[in-house]
Design goal:
By secondary structure, the chain is of the alpha/beta class. It is built from twelve helices and 24 strands. It has helices at residues 15-26, 62-68, 102-113, 127-138, 174-184, 201-217, 263-271, 291-299, 380-395, 405-412, 453-467, 519-543; strands spanning 2-10, 33-45, 48-58, 74-76, 96-98, 119-121, 221-223, 228-234, 237-243, 247-250, 254-256, 276-278, 281-290, 315-317, 323-330, 334-337, 347-350, 359-368, 400-404, 438-439, 442-444, 479-484, 491-493, 506-508. A seven-stranded mixed beta sheet has the order 14-15-18-13-22-19-21.
């Protein structure tokens, strides 16, 4: 196989134009077999926009064709397919998987496919029922603590943009495996090669159902409304779990894949003496801009039908050394009420597959560490989150509080240490009639009161730096909503080189356990744990 790097064509090109350019580059008349490995956007000459491709090519006379090629752009390449270390298992052991977020779902799928007949336990409801509960809550209904944006089939990522890009290095092919499994379950094929792949919450919900059905068809079991309230052990080895405080389900192998919001589960594990530690994460606000402003910044025009709504990624370091950065950017999206506990309020961002709302939003977040939590212990970060969420609930009177950035900035900063550009014209200005795109009740309120002062100052300093990167980003009419507190798990459940916790046979996994950040990395960690678990089970049975 031949690999072509950095092949550029204008956005909107046809397949024939791609094929002709490949043939010209390879100096051959044969129509080659073209497989797109990666496609990214080159906007360095905006508003002229280009796609940059990495392609794998199959031709009949490969040796002769390669001899004639420019070796700087064309190389020989041999793809190594992903291989799971077990298949056709027919033993007696059935592993239990706690949680059906990406980590638990992909772990369960791989084990079911290999014959292990896993039992997946989900505290919430199937995605069809969960969606109705969430929509009812957003429409003014009562929060269901066990069925909401955080809890239920698919995990917190179900009600998000469905972003599938990750920065995790992948020498084992797990990333590619995750994307191909998504496609097999109904996701669009473009996610296999787009530089920033996404599905959208509407499509992701259907994909999750297809994966669940596949697990069951392969001999696995998925049980809903099945909250694990305790871990059973024999000596220092897990022997099962207790469901809903009453039913005992036995197994010597348990995968612990809770979401990052499973605070009661963290407390239970702490009481069992399982080694955990507080970890750094980040908190901040959802920030909304008109999508046209972001498009103009990224594309040089307010609309580009062949590319859809533009994304961005911004990072900064403050004068005090804190990191401030964008997170979970949702083009053409909505800010959503993502609360899971009564009396506490958290927000998140979400896009449908069309990404066609009028606003762009992302979390602009400030890094925090255990030194910021105001207390010690493994669960200190959880209590820090709760205090912020209680404040957000209070200032919004139970609704999502919204404040314009100009007012927020004025309340937070008491001396003019930043270049605000308040009286300077920018290429794009945001109207004071600009309003939020929100799922759930909202009202204008003092968002500036939520964060501790030092974090609020860091937030403003970051926003001002971003205003020099994207004109209008720090406009006084930009909308802020708070609080974004569930960026990642505030806890890490310690695991060893065999991926087991301090209790043997218990495998912490995914984002909630502190080993991933996002849908794809959590799914990859689920596959990694499934590999190790399969090897351990087979080894145990062979030893007996």
């Amino acid at each position: 196989m031949l690999r072509i790097n950095q092949l550029k064509l204008p956005v909107g090109h046809t397949y024939d134009e791609l094929a002709n350019k490949v043939r010209k580059l390879l100096r051959c008349q044969e129509i080659p077999e073209i497989h797109i490995v990666r496609r990214s956007i080159d906007a360095r000459k905006k508003p002229k926009l280009f796609f940059s491709y990495i392609l794998d090519i199959k031709v009949k006379n490969q040796t002769e064709v390669y001899r004639r090629c420019d070796k700087k752009q064309v190389q020989l390449f041999e793809e190594v397919p992903y291989t799971f270390p077990a298949s056709g298992y027919r033993g007696r052991i059935r592993p239990i998987i706690i949680g059906t977020g990406p980590a638990g779902l992909f772990c369960g799928y791989m084990l079911a496919q290999a014959g292990f007949q896993p039992i997946l336990l989900e505290r919430g409801k199937p995605v069809e029922e969960r969606t109705r509960d969430v929509q009812d809550f957003w429409s003014g209904g009562t929060l269901n603590p066990e069925s909401n944006v955080q809890f239920g089939e698919g995990g917190a990522g179900t009600f998000s943009d469905g972003k599938l890009n990750t920065l995790v290095k992948d020498k084992y092919g797990r990333n590619r495996k995750v994307l191909s499994m998504f496609v097999e379950a109904g996701a669009p094929e473009e996610i296999l090669y787009d530089h920033k792949p996404h599905i959208g919450t509407d499509v992701l919900s259907k994909v999750i159902v297809n994966m669940r059905n596949a697990i069951c068809n392969m001999g696995g079991e998925v049980r809903f409304n099945s909250k694990v309230t305790d871990i059973v052990c024999y000596g220092n080895h897990v022997s099962g779990v207790i469901i809903n405080g009453e039913e005992i389900l036995k197994s010597e192998y348990v995968v612990l894949a809770p979401g990052h919001s499973a605070r009661d589960t963290f407390s239970m594990l702490y009481e069992k003496g399982i080694l955990m530690e507080a970890k750094p994460f980040a908190v901040g606000m959802r920030v909304e801009h008109p999508q046209g402003l972001i498009n103009f910044s990224q594309y040089g025009k307010e609309e580009e039908k062949d590319l859809g709504s533009a994304t961005y990624k911004v990072t900064a370091k403050t004068s005090e050394g804190r990191g401030v950065y964008s997170f979970c950017m949702c083009p053409g999206g909505y800010v959503v009420n993502a609360s899971s506990e009564p009396g506490r309020l958290a927000v998140n961002g979400m896009s449908y597959s069309g990404r066609n709302s009028t606003n762009a939003n992302s979390a602009i977040i400030v890094s925090v560490s255990p030194e910021d939590y105001g207390m010690s212990g493994p669960l200190a970060g959880v209590e820090f989150q709760r205090r912020l969420e209680e404040k957000a609930f209070s200032v919004g009177n139970g609704a999502i509080p919204v404040e314009r950035y100009g007012e927020y900035r004025k309340k937070i900063v008491t001396n003019q240490i930043y270049d605000y550009n308040e009286n300077k014209e920018t290429e794009k200005r945001i109207s004071d009639t600009f309003m939020p795109c929100i799922k759930g009740k909202w009202e204008f309120g003092p968002v500036h009161e939520i964060l501790p002062k030092e974090l609020g100052r860091a937030f403003v300093e970051g926003m001002e730096q971003f205003g020099h990167i994207i004109k209008g980003f720090n406009d006084e009419n930009v909308l802020l909503e708070g609080i974004e507190s569930r960026t990642s798990s505030p806890v890490r459940i310690v695991r060893d080189e065999k991926l087991q916790s301090t209790m043997e046979g218990l495998y912490p996994c995914g984002e909630g356990a502190g080993y991933a950040g996002g849908i794809t990395s959590a799914a990859m960690d689920g596959i990694k744990v499934a590999e190790m678990l399969a090897v351990h089970i087979i080894r145990q049975e062979n030893n007996h």
